[in-house]
Amino acid sequence: MKLKFNYRKLLSIVAIIAIWELLCDIGYVNIRILPSPYVVLITLYHLIISGSILFDMLTSLWRVIVGFLIAVFLGIVTGYFTATNKKASDFLTPLIEILRPIPPVAFIPLSILWFGIGNAPAYFLVAFGSFFPIFTNTFYGIKSVNKIHIDAALCLGASRKQLVFDVIIPAAMPFITVGLKTGIGVAWFCVIAAELVGAQSGLGYMIQLNRLTLQSENVIAGMVMIGLIGFLMSRMMVFIQKKLVPWSNKTS
Amino acid sequence: MEKIELINISKSFVQNGNNCKNEPLILNDISLKINSGSFVSILGPSGCGKSTLLNIIAGFISPSKGEIKFNGFPVTAPNPNRVVIFQDYGLFDWKTVQGNIEFGLIAKNIPKTERKEITQYYIDLVHLKGSENKYPHELSGGMKQRAAIARALAIEPECLLMDEPFGALDSQTRNILQDEILDIWKKTKNTIVSITHNVDEAVYLSDRIIVLSNSPAKILIDTNVNLPRPRFPEIRLQKDFIEIYNYLWQSLRNEVMSNK
Ligand SMILES: Nc1ncnc2c1ncn2[C@@H]1O[C@H](COP(=O)(O)OP(=O)(O)OP(=O)(O)O)[C@@H](O)[C@H]1O
Ligand SMILES: [Mg+2]
Q1: Which of A232, A243, B101, B106 has a CA between 20 and 30 Å from the CA of residue A118?
Q2: What is the rounded end-to-end Cα distance, in angstroms, of chain A?
Q3: Domain A35-244 has CATH 3.40.50.300
Q4: pLDDT tens across B31-59, in order?
Q5: CA nearest neighbour of B142 among B129, B127, B154, B132
Q6: Chain A residues with CB inside 8 Å of B136's CB?
Q7: pLDDT above 90 covers what percent of chain A?
Protein backbone atom coordinates (compact mmCIF):
# COMPACT_ATOMS: atom_id res chain seq x y z
CA MET A 1 0.00 0.00 0.00
CA LYS A 2 1.29 3.41 -0.91
CA LEU A 3 0.95 6.04 1.75
CA LYS A 4 -0.33 9.23 0.26
CA PHE A 5 -0.66 12.00 2.75
CA ASN A 6 -3.02 14.81 2.04
CA TYR A 7 -1.18 17.89 3.27
CA ARG A 8 -4.33 19.96 3.19
CA LYS A 9 -5.40 18.08 6.30
CA LEU A 10 -2.61 19.81 8.22
CA LEU A 11 -3.56 23.26 7.05
CA SER A 12 -6.00 24.28 9.79
CA ILE A 13 -3.63 23.09 12.51
CA VAL A 14 -0.62 24.87 11.06
CA ALA A 15 -2.68 28.03 10.60
CA ILE A 16 -3.90 28.16 14.18
CA ILE A 17 -0.40 27.53 15.54
CA ALA A 18 1.02 30.24 13.28
CA ILE A 19 -1.55 32.78 14.42
CA TRP A 20 -0.99 31.80 18.03
CA GLU A 21 2.79 32.19 17.63
CA LEU A 22 2.31 35.52 15.91
CA LEU A 23 0.02 36.86 18.62
CA CYS A 24 2.58 35.91 21.26
CA ASP A 25 5.49 37.38 19.30
CA ILE A 26 3.90 40.77 18.73
CA GLY A 27 3.02 40.89 22.42
CA TYR A 28 -0.71 40.91 21.86
CA VAL A 29 -1.38 38.24 24.49
CA ASN A 30 -0.08 37.77 27.99
CA ILE A 31 2.50 35.01 27.60
CA ARG A 32 2.18 34.19 31.29
CA ILE A 33 -1.26 32.74 30.63
CA LEU A 34 -0.75 31.83 26.99
CA PRO A 35 2.87 31.00 26.22
CA SER A 36 3.86 30.68 22.59
CA PRO A 37 3.81 27.33 20.78
CA TYR A 38 7.57 27.44 20.60
CA VAL A 39 7.89 27.77 24.37
CA VAL A 40 5.39 24.94 24.83
CA LEU A 41 7.41 22.75 22.50
CA ILE A 42 10.65 23.45 24.38
CA THR A 43 8.88 22.80 27.68
CA LEU A 44 7.50 19.52 26.41
CA TYR A 45 10.97 18.54 25.26
CA HIS A 46 12.44 19.23 28.69
CA LEU A 47 9.60 17.44 30.45
CA ILE A 48 10.21 14.38 28.29
CA ILE A 49 14.00 14.52 28.72
CA SER A 50 13.71 14.77 32.48
CA GLY A 51 11.23 11.89 32.42
CA SER A 52 8.72 13.59 34.69
CA ILE A 53 5.93 13.77 32.11
CA LEU A 54 6.61 10.18 31.09
CA PHE A 55 6.09 9.07 34.65
CA ASP A 56 2.77 10.94 34.79
CA MET A 57 1.80 9.47 31.45
CA LEU A 58 2.55 5.91 32.52
CA THR A 59 0.61 6.44 35.74
CA SER A 60 -2.44 7.64 33.80
CA LEU A 61 -2.10 4.84 31.28
CA TRP A 62 -1.93 2.24 34.01
CA ARG A 63 -5.13 3.59 35.56
CA VAL A 64 -6.88 3.54 32.22
CA ILE A 65 -5.80 0.00 31.47
CA VAL A 66 -6.91 -1.38 34.84
CA GLY A 67 -10.24 0.45 34.85
CA PHE A 68 -10.89 -0.33 31.22
CA LEU A 69 -10.19 -4.04 31.63
CA ILE A 70 -12.60 -4.17 34.56
CA ALA A 71 -15.21 -2.49 32.35
CA VAL A 72 -14.52 -4.87 29.46
CA PHE A 73 -15.05 -7.86 31.71
CA LEU A 74 -18.15 -6.53 33.44
CA GLY A 75 -19.60 -5.00 30.29
CA ILE A 76 -19.32 -8.15 28.21
CA VAL A 77 -20.49 -10.48 30.97
CA THR A 78 -23.53 -8.39 31.92
CA GLY A 79 -24.23 -7.64 28.26
CA TYR A 80 -24.19 -11.35 27.52
CA PHE A 81 -26.46 -12.33 30.37
CA THR A 82 -28.98 -9.53 29.95
CA ALA A 83 -29.22 -10.34 26.24
CA THR A 84 -29.67 -14.08 26.68
CA ASN A 85 -31.52 -14.42 29.95
CA LYS A 86 -34.87 -12.79 30.66
CA LYS A 87 -34.46 -13.01 34.43
CA ALA A 88 -30.99 -11.48 34.35
CA SER A 89 -32.35 -8.74 32.11
CA ASP A 90 -35.27 -7.98 34.45
CA PHE A 91 -32.87 -7.89 37.35
CA LEU A 92 -30.04 -5.80 35.90
CA THR A 93 -31.52 -3.52 33.24
CA PRO A 94 -33.38 -1.12 35.60
CA LEU A 95 -30.25 -0.68 37.70
CA ILE A 96 -28.10 -0.02 34.66
CA GLU A 97 -30.61 2.40 33.16
CA ILE A 98 -30.83 4.36 36.40
CA LEU A 99 -27.04 4.70 36.65
CA ARG A 100 -26.44 5.45 32.98
CA PRO A 101 -27.63 9.10 32.91
CA ILE A 102 -25.30 10.07 35.77
CA PRO A 103 -22.16 11.53 34.20
CA PRO A 104 -19.12 9.67 35.54
CA VAL A 105 -17.57 12.92 36.80
CA ALA A 106 -20.53 13.31 39.16
CA PHE A 107 -19.13 10.27 40.94
CA ILE A 108 -15.81 11.96 41.69
CA PRO A 109 -16.77 13.31 45.12
CA LEU A 110 -18.20 10.00 46.24
CA SER A 111 -15.35 7.98 44.83
CA ILE A 112 -12.83 10.08 46.76
CA LEU A 113 -14.88 9.56 49.91
CA TRP A 114 -15.00 5.83 49.31
CA PHE A 115 -11.56 5.14 47.93
CA GLY A 116 -9.42 8.06 49.09
CA ILE A 117 -6.80 9.70 46.88
CA GLY A 118 -4.73 7.73 44.39
CA ASN A 119 -5.32 4.90 41.95
CA ALA A 120 -8.55 3.45 43.32
CA PRO A 121 -10.95 6.32 42.56
CA ALA A 122 -9.49 6.51 39.05
CA TYR A 123 -10.00 2.78 38.52
CA PHE A 124 -13.57 3.15 39.70
CA LEU A 125 -14.37 6.14 37.53
CA VAL A 126 -12.78 4.71 34.42
CA ALA A 127 -14.53 1.38 34.89
CA PHE A 128 -17.85 3.10 35.57
CA GLY A 129 -17.63 5.39 32.57
CA SER A 130 -16.49 2.88 29.99
CA PHE A 131 -18.81 0.14 31.22
CA PHE A 132 -21.90 1.61 29.53
CA PRO A 133 -20.81 1.72 25.89
CA ILE A 134 -19.28 -1.75 26.20
CA PHE A 135 -22.36 -3.15 27.88
CA THR A 136 -24.82 -1.58 25.44
CA ASN A 137 -22.96 -2.66 22.33
CA THR A 138 -22.44 -6.18 23.64
CA PHE A 139 -26.13 -6.38 24.46
CA TYR A 140 -27.26 -5.32 20.99
CA GLY A 141 -24.56 -7.40 19.34
CA ILE A 142 -25.78 -10.54 21.05
CA LYS A 143 -29.42 -9.64 20.47
CA SER A 144 -28.72 -9.37 16.76
CA VAL A 145 -26.97 -12.73 16.39
CA ASN A 146 -28.57 -14.44 13.42
CA LYS A 147 -30.73 -17.40 14.47
CA ILE A 148 -29.45 -19.36 11.48
CA HIS A 149 -25.97 -19.37 13.04
CA ILE A 150 -27.30 -20.77 16.30
CA ASP A 151 -29.28 -23.42 14.41
CA ALA A 152 -26.27 -24.28 12.25
CA ALA A 153 -24.09 -24.68 15.34
CA LEU A 154 -26.66 -26.83 17.12
CA CYS A 155 -27.16 -29.24 14.25
CA LEU A 156 -23.39 -29.54 13.92
CA GLY A 157 -23.38 -30.75 17.50
CA ALA A 158 -21.87 -27.66 19.18
CA SER A 159 -21.17 -27.88 22.88
CA ARG A 160 -22.37 -25.11 25.17
CA LYS A 161 -18.83 -23.72 25.30
CA GLN A 162 -18.55 -23.70 21.51
CA LEU A 163 -21.93 -22.05 21.19
CA VAL A 164 -20.93 -19.18 23.49
CA PHE A 165 -17.29 -18.65 22.57
CA ASP A 166 -17.21 -19.82 18.98
CA VAL A 167 -20.57 -18.56 17.78
CA ILE A 168 -22.39 -15.99 19.93
CA ILE A 169 -19.43 -13.89 21.06
CA PRO A 170 -17.68 -13.76 17.66
CA ALA A 171 -20.99 -13.07 15.92
CA ALA A 172 -21.46 -10.11 18.25
CA MET A 173 -17.82 -9.02 17.96
CA PRO A 174 -18.37 -6.29 15.32
CA PHE A 175 -20.71 -4.60 17.82
CA ILE A 176 -18.51 -5.30 20.82
CA THR A 177 -15.50 -3.65 19.19
CA VAL A 178 -17.57 -0.52 18.57
CA GLY A 179 -18.25 -0.55 22.31
CA LEU A 180 -14.55 -0.95 23.04
CA LYS A 181 -13.65 1.97 20.79
CA THR A 182 -16.20 4.26 22.39
CA GLY A 183 -15.26 2.90 25.80
CA ILE A 184 -11.56 3.68 25.54
CA GLY A 185 -12.36 7.31 24.69
CA VAL A 186 -14.62 7.62 27.70
CA ALA A 187 -11.99 5.88 29.83
CA TRP A 188 -9.31 8.43 28.91
CA PHE A 189 -11.69 11.26 29.63
CA CYS A 190 -12.55 9.75 33.02
CA VAL A 191 -8.98 9.18 34.14
CA ILE A 192 -7.97 12.77 33.45
CA ALA A 193 -11.07 14.04 35.24
CA ALA A 194 -10.36 11.77 38.20
CA GLU A 195 -6.77 12.93 38.43
CA LEU A 196 -7.72 16.61 38.41
CA VAL A 197 -9.07 16.22 41.92
CA GLY A 198 -8.59 12.70 43.18
CA ALA A 199 -4.92 11.90 42.67
CA GLN A 200 -1.37 13.05 43.28
CA SER A 201 0.11 11.80 40.07
CA GLY A 202 -0.84 11.37 36.45
CA LEU A 203 -1.33 13.82 33.62
CA GLY A 204 -4.57 15.24 35.05
CA TYR A 205 -2.88 15.96 38.35
CA MET A 206 0.14 17.40 36.56
CA ILE A 207 -1.82 20.07 34.67
CA GLN A 208 -3.84 20.94 37.75
CA LEU A 209 -0.69 21.34 39.85
CA ASN A 210 0.97 23.54 37.24
CA ARG A 211 -2.08 25.76 37.11
CA LEU A 212 -1.65 26.36 40.84
CA THR A 213 2.01 27.28 40.33
CA LEU A 214 1.05 29.43 37.32
CA GLN A 215 3.27 27.49 34.93
CA SER A 216 0.94 27.65 32.01
CA GLU A 217 3.56 26.30 29.56
CA ASN A 218 3.57 23.10 31.59
CA VAL A 219 -0.22 23.00 31.58
CA ILE A 220 -0.34 23.25 27.82
CA ALA A 221 2.49 20.76 27.38
CA GLY A 222 0.46 18.35 29.55
CA MET A 223 -2.61 18.96 27.45
CA VAL A 224 -0.68 18.26 24.28
CA MET A 225 0.44 14.99 25.81
CA ILE A 226 -3.14 14.13 26.83
CA GLY A 227 -4.35 14.77 23.31
CA LEU A 228 -1.55 12.76 21.81
CA ILE A 229 -2.12 9.73 24.03
CA GLY A 230 -5.87 9.88 23.44
CA PHE A 231 -5.28 9.95 19.72
CA LEU A 232 -2.85 7.04 19.86
CA MET A 233 -5.23 4.99 21.99
CA SER A 234 -8.10 5.37 19.57
CA ARG A 235 -5.71 4.47 16.74
CA MET A 236 -4.72 1.36 18.65
CA MET A 237 -8.37 0.40 19.10
CA VAL A 238 -8.84 0.54 15.33
CA PHE A 239 -5.90 -1.83 15.06
CA ILE A 240 -7.32 -4.13 17.74
CA GLN A 241 -10.68 -4.03 16.01
CA LYS A 242 -9.10 -5.27 12.81
CA LYS A 243 -7.45 -8.07 14.77
CA LEU A 244 -10.68 -9.04 16.54
CA VAL A 245 -12.91 -8.77 13.48
CA PRO A 246 -10.66 -9.90 10.64
CA TRP A 247 -13.64 -11.10 8.61
CA SER A 248 -15.42 -7.78 8.27
CA ASN A 249 -12.73 -5.79 6.55
CA LYS A 250 -15.36 -5.14 3.94
CA THR A 251 -18.99 -6.16 4.00
CA SER A 252 -20.02 -9.68 4.83
CA MET B 1 -35.78 -49.42 6.56
CA GLU B 2 -37.16 -46.02 7.40
CA LYS B 3 -34.85 -43.33 8.61
CA ILE B 4 -37.39 -40.59 9.22
CA GLU B 5 -40.98 -41.07 10.24
CA LEU B 6 -43.54 -38.28 10.56
CA ILE B 7 -46.78 -39.33 12.22
CA ASN B 8 -49.77 -36.97 11.90
CA ILE B 9 -47.69 -33.83 12.22
CA SER B 10 -49.56 -30.54 12.61
CA LYS B 11 -48.03 -27.19 13.37
CA SER B 12 -49.29 -23.75 14.27
CA PHE B 13 -47.16 -20.98 15.69
CA VAL B 14 -48.19 -19.60 19.05
CA GLN B 15 -48.02 -15.84 18.83
CA ASN B 16 -47.19 -13.48 21.68
CA GLY B 17 -47.37 -16.35 24.10
CA ASN B 18 -51.19 -16.50 24.18
CA ASN B 19 -52.26 -19.99 23.44
CA CYS B 20 -55.71 -19.40 22.01
CA LYS B 21 -56.77 -22.08 19.59
CA ASN B 22 -57.29 -19.90 16.52
CA GLU B 23 -53.67 -19.62 15.46
CA PRO B 24 -53.42 -20.39 11.74
CA LEU B 25 -52.47 -23.95 11.00
CA ILE B 26 -49.29 -24.19 8.90
CA LEU B 27 -48.92 -27.96 8.61
CA ASN B 28 -52.04 -30.09 8.57
CA ASP B 29 -51.73 -33.72 9.58
CA ILE B 30 -48.67 -34.77 7.63
CA SER B 31 -47.59 -38.40 7.74
CA LEU B 32 -44.51 -39.54 5.89
CA LYS B 33 -41.90 -42.28 5.99
CA ILE B 34 -38.54 -41.69 4.40
CA ASN B 35 -36.32 -44.64 3.67
CA SER B 36 -32.69 -44.83 4.61
CA GLY B 37 -30.41 -43.80 1.79
CA SER B 38 -33.10 -42.24 -0.37
CA PHE B 39 -33.12 -38.82 -1.99
CA VAL B 40 -36.46 -37.13 -1.36
CA SER B 41 -37.45 -33.70 -2.63
CA ILE B 42 -40.26 -31.62 -1.23
CA LEU B 43 -42.01 -29.21 -3.57
CA GLY B 44 -44.72 -26.75 -2.66
CA PRO B 45 -46.11 -23.27 -3.21
CA SER B 46 -44.22 -20.41 -1.65
CA GLY B 47 -44.99 -19.95 2.01
CA CYS B 48 -46.84 -23.24 2.35
CA GLY B 49 -44.67 -24.50 5.20
CA LYS B 50 -41.79 -26.36 3.57
CA SER B 51 -39.13 -24.78 5.78
CA THR B 52 -41.34 -25.34 8.80
CA LEU B 53 -41.49 -29.03 7.96
CA LEU B 54 -37.73 -29.22 7.53
CA ASN B 55 -37.15 -27.37 10.79
CA ILE B 56 -39.33 -29.92 12.54
CA ILE B 57 -37.32 -32.80 11.07
CA ALA B 58 -34.11 -31.01 12.10
CA GLY B 59 -35.41 -30.59 15.64
CA PHE B 60 -35.23 -26.77 15.66
CA ILE B 61 -38.95 -26.55 16.37
CA SER B 62 -41.38 -29.10 17.68
CA PRO B 63 -44.73 -29.98 16.12
CA SER B 64 -47.96 -28.84 17.78
CA LYS B 65 -49.43 -32.28 17.24
CA GLY B 66 -48.07 -35.60 16.13
CA GLU B 67 -44.80 -37.35 16.45
CA ILE B 68 -41.49 -37.39 14.62
CA LYS B 69 -39.01 -40.23 14.79
CA PHE B 70 -35.48 -40.60 13.55
CA ASN B 71 -34.09 -44.15 13.46
CA GLY B 72 -37.18 -45.06 15.45
CA PHE B 73 -36.42 -42.64 18.28
CA PRO B 74 -38.40 -39.46 18.97
CA VAL B 75 -36.76 -36.24 17.81
CA THR B 76 -36.56 -33.64 20.58
CA ALA B 77 -33.59 -31.46 19.63
CA PRO B 78 -31.10 -30.86 16.83
CA ASN B 79 -28.57 -33.63 16.49
CA PRO B 80 -25.45 -33.97 14.34
CA ASN B 81 -26.87 -37.10 12.73
CA ARG B 82 -29.15 -34.75 10.78
CA VAL B 83 -27.39 -31.72 9.41
CA VAL B 84 -29.14 -28.81 7.75
CA ILE B 85 -27.85 -26.95 4.71
CA PHE B 86 -29.49 -23.57 4.65
CA GLN B 87 -30.60 -21.55 1.65
CA ASP B 88 -28.44 -18.60 2.65
CA TYR B 89 -25.63 -20.94 3.61
CA GLY B 90 -25.51 -20.29 7.36
CA LEU B 91 -21.72 -20.13 7.25
CA PHE B 92 -19.98 -18.57 10.22
CA ASP B 93 -18.78 -15.21 8.86
CA TRP B 94 -16.02 -15.08 11.48
CA LYS B 95 -14.44 -18.36 10.45
CA THR B 96 -12.50 -19.26 7.36
CA VAL B 97 -13.64 -22.12 5.13
CA GLN B 98 -11.29 -24.35 7.10
CA GLY B 99 -12.64 -23.07 10.42
CA ASN B 100 -16.22 -23.58 9.33
CA ILE B 101 -15.61 -27.17 8.32
CA GLU B 102 -13.64 -27.91 11.48
CA PHE B 103 -16.41 -26.60 13.73
CA GLY B 104 -18.42 -29.82 13.74
CA LEU B 105 -15.26 -31.90 14.08
CA ILE B 106 -14.21 -29.98 17.17
CA ALA B 107 -17.67 -30.64 18.57
CA LYS B 108 -16.98 -34.34 17.99
CA ASN B 109 -13.66 -34.05 19.87
CA ILE B 110 -11.66 -35.28 16.92
CA PRO B 111 -7.92 -34.70 17.53
CA LYS B 112 -6.22 -31.93 15.64
CA THR B 113 -4.16 -33.83 13.08
CA GLU B 114 -7.06 -36.04 12.11
CA ARG B 115 -9.28 -32.97 11.95
CA LYS B 116 -6.97 -31.34 9.44
CA GLU B 117 -6.97 -34.46 7.29
CA ILE B 118 -10.75 -34.78 7.27
CA THR B 119 -11.15 -31.08 6.54
CA GLN B 120 -8.74 -31.31 3.64
CA TYR B 121 -10.56 -34.33 2.26
CA TYR B 122 -13.89 -32.52 2.15
CA ILE B 123 -12.36 -29.32 0.82
CA ASP B 124 -11.06 -31.38 -2.10
CA LEU B 125 -14.37 -33.17 -2.47
CA VAL B 126 -16.30 -29.93 -2.99
CA HIS B 127 -13.55 -28.41 -5.13
CA LEU B 128 -12.57 -25.63 -2.75
CA LYS B 129 -8.84 -26.28 -2.78
CA GLY B 130 -6.97 -23.00 -2.45
CA SER B 131 -9.83 -21.26 -0.65
CA GLU B 132 -9.25 -22.86 2.77
CA ASN B 133 -8.20 -19.63 4.39
CA LYS B 134 -10.82 -17.37 2.88
CA TYR B 135 -13.65 -15.89 4.86
CA PRO B 136 -17.21 -16.38 3.59
CA HIS B 137 -17.47 -12.78 2.37
CA GLU B 138 -14.57 -13.49 0.03
CA LEU B 139 -16.41 -16.36 -1.66
CA SER B 140 -18.93 -16.44 -4.50
CA GLY B 141 -22.40 -17.84 -3.83
CA GLY B 142 -21.51 -21.20 -5.33
CA MET B 143 -18.33 -21.43 -3.28
CA LYS B 144 -20.25 -20.56 -0.13
CA GLN B 145 -22.71 -23.34 -0.75
CA ARG B 146 -19.84 -25.74 -1.43
CA ALA B 147 -18.29 -24.77 1.89
CA ALA B 148 -21.62 -25.29 3.64
CA ILE B 149 -21.96 -28.72 2.03
CA ALA B 150 -18.42 -29.65 3.07
CA ARG B 151 -19.11 -28.48 6.61
CA ALA B 152 -22.22 -30.63 6.77
CA LEU B 153 -20.62 -33.71 5.22
CA ALA B 154 -17.48 -33.56 7.34
CA ILE B 155 -19.26 -34.82 10.43
CA GLU B 156 -20.65 -37.74 8.42
CA PRO B 157 -24.31 -37.24 9.20
CA GLU B 158 -26.79 -39.99 8.45
CA CYS B 159 -29.09 -37.46 6.92
CA LEU B 160 -28.74 -34.18 5.04
CA LEU B 161 -31.60 -31.72 5.23
CA MET B 162 -31.37 -29.10 2.51
CA ASP B 163 -33.60 -26.03 2.45
CA GLU B 164 -33.50 -24.70 -1.11
CA PRO B 165 -29.75 -25.20 -1.14
CA PHE B 166 -29.24 -23.89 -4.66
CA GLY B 167 -32.06 -21.35 -4.67
CA ALA B 168 -29.79 -18.33 -4.54
CA LEU B 169 -27.46 -19.50 -7.31
CA ASP B 170 -27.47 -18.81 -11.03
CA SER B 171 -28.70 -21.70 -13.18
CA GLN B 172 -25.22 -22.62 -14.40
CA THR B 173 -23.79 -22.98 -10.91
CA ARG B 174 -26.99 -24.64 -9.81
CA ASN B 175 -26.64 -27.37 -12.44
CA ILE B 176 -23.00 -27.98 -11.61
CA LEU B 177 -23.75 -28.30 -7.91
CA GLN B 178 -26.66 -30.66 -8.62
CA ASP B 179 -24.27 -33.04 -10.36
CA GLU B 180 -21.75 -32.66 -7.57
CA ILE B 181 -24.29 -33.43 -4.87
CA LEU B 182 -25.32 -36.57 -6.77
CA ASP B 183 -21.68 -37.62 -6.99
CA ILE B 184 -21.16 -37.05 -3.31
CA TRP B 185 -24.37 -38.81 -2.40
CA LYS B 186 -23.24 -41.85 -4.38
CA LYS B 187 -20.16 -42.02 -2.12
CA THR B 188 -21.75 -41.19 1.21
CA LYS B 189 -25.07 -42.99 0.71
CA ASN B 190 -26.81 -40.86 3.32
CA THR B 191 -30.46 -39.93 3.35
CA ILE B 192 -31.20 -36.59 1.74
CA VAL B 193 -34.31 -34.49 2.14
CA SER B 194 -34.21 -31.50 -0.15
CA ILE B 195 -36.66 -28.63 -0.36
CA THR B 196 -36.92 -26.81 -3.63
CA HIS B 197 -39.05 -24.48 -5.71
CA ASN B 198 -37.55 -25.94 -8.81
CA VAL B 199 -39.43 -28.85 -10.41
CA ASP B 200 -36.56 -29.65 -12.76
CA GLU B 201 -34.16 -29.94 -9.86
CA ALA B 202 -36.52 -32.17 -7.90
CA VAL B 203 -36.96 -34.59 -10.82
CA TYR B 204 -33.28 -34.57 -11.70
CA LEU B 205 -32.07 -35.37 -8.20
CA SER B 206 -34.72 -37.43 -6.45
CA ASP B 207 -35.93 -40.96 -5.94
CA ARG B 208 -39.16 -39.62 -4.63
CA ILE B 209 -41.00 -36.31 -4.70
CA ILE B 210 -43.54 -34.96 -2.23
CA VAL B 211 -45.71 -32.03 -3.26
CA LEU B 212 -47.31 -30.01 -0.49
CA SER B 213 -50.56 -28.09 -0.83
CA ASN B 214 -51.19 -24.45 -0.05
CA SER B 215 -51.17 -23.53 3.61
CA PRO B 216 -52.19 -25.34 5.76
CA ALA B 217 -49.95 -27.82 4.02
CA LYS B 218 -50.92 -31.41 3.55
CA ILE B 219 -49.40 -33.94 1.20
CA LEU B 220 -50.85 -33.44 -2.28
CA ILE B 221 -48.67 -35.79 -4.29
CA ASP B 222 -46.22 -38.47 -3.25
CA THR B 223 -44.54 -40.04 -6.24
CA ASN B 224 -41.46 -42.08 -7.06
CA VAL B 225 -39.08 -41.01 -9.79
CA ASN B 226 -38.07 -44.12 -11.62
CA LEU B 227 -35.40 -42.63 -13.80
CA PRO B 228 -32.16 -44.60 -14.07
CA ARG B 229 -29.01 -43.61 -12.21
CA PRO B 230 -26.41 -42.28 -12.60
CA ARG B 231 -28.20 -39.26 -13.94
CA PHE B 232 -26.60 -36.90 -16.39
CA PRO B 233 -27.80 -33.60 -17.89
CA GLU B 234 -29.08 -35.16 -21.13
CA ILE B 235 -31.69 -37.09 -19.16
CA ARG B 236 -33.69 -33.88 -19.16
CA LEU B 237 -34.50 -34.48 -22.81
CA GLN B 238 -35.87 -37.98 -22.29
CA LYS B 239 -39.58 -38.70 -22.52
CA ASP B 240 -39.88 -40.12 -18.99
CA PHE B 241 -38.24 -37.07 -17.50
CA ILE B 242 -40.45 -34.66 -19.40
CA GLU B 243 -43.56 -36.61 -18.50
CA ILE B 244 -43.01 -36.51 -14.79
CA TYR B 245 -41.78 -32.92 -15.01
CA ASN B 246 -44.97 -31.82 -16.76
CA TYR B 247 -47.18 -33.71 -14.36
CA LEU B 248 -45.56 -32.08 -11.31
CA TRP B 249 -45.34 -28.68 -12.91
CA GLN B 250 -49.04 -28.68 -13.81
CA SER B 251 -50.09 -29.89 -10.37
CA LEU B 252 -47.99 -27.28 -8.67
CA ARG B 253 -49.28 -24.57 -10.97
CA ASN B 254 -52.88 -25.55 -10.33
CA GLU B 255 -52.25 -25.50 -6.61
CA VAL B 256 -50.65 -22.09 -6.73
CA MET B 257 -53.42 -20.69 -8.94
CA SER B 258 -56.19 -22.15 -6.75
CA ASN B 259 -54.99 -19.84 -4.03
CA LYS B 260 -55.62 -16.69 -6.02
N1 LIG C 1 -41.47 -18.68 13.72
C2 LIG C 1 -42.63 -18.43 13.11
N3 LIG C 1 -43.62 -17.77 13.75
C4 LIG C 1 -44.80 -17.53 13.16
N5 LIG C 1 -45.10 -17.89 11.90
C6 LIG C 1 -44.16 -18.54 11.19
C7 LIG C 1 -42.88 -18.84 11.76
N8 LIG C 1 -42.15 -19.49 10.82
C9 LIG C 1 -42.95 -19.59 9.73
N10 LIG C 1 -44.14 -19.02 9.96
C11 LIG C 1 -45.26 -18.97 9.00
O12 LIG C 1 -45.45 -20.26 8.50
C13 LIG C 1 -45.77 -20.21 7.13
C14 LIG C 1 -44.86 -21.14 6.37
O15 LIG C 1 -43.54 -20.66 6.43
P16 LIG C 1 -42.33 -21.47 5.80
O17 LIG C 1 -41.14 -20.65 5.96
O18 LIG C 1 -42.31 -22.83 6.38
O19 LIG C 1 -42.78 -21.54 4.28
P20 LIG C 1 -41.96 -22.06 3.02
O21 LIG C 1 -42.83 -23.02 2.33
O22 LIG C 1 -40.62 -22.50 3.43
O23 LIG C 1 -41.87 -20.73 2.19
P24 LIG C 1 -40.76 -20.32 1.10
O25 LIG C 1 -41.09 -21.13 -0.11
O26 LIG C 1 -41.02 -18.88 0.87
O27 LIG C 1 -39.42 -20.64 1.66
C28 LIG C 1 -45.67 -18.75 6.71
O29 LIG C 1 -46.97 -18.22 6.60
C30 LIG C 1 -44.92 -18.10 7.82
O31 LIG C 1 -45.39 -16.79 8.01
MG1 LIG D 1 -38.61 -21.81 3.05
Answers
A1: A232
A2: 23
A3: no
A4: 999 999 999 999 999 999 999 999 999 99
A5: B127
A6: 247, 252
A7: 88
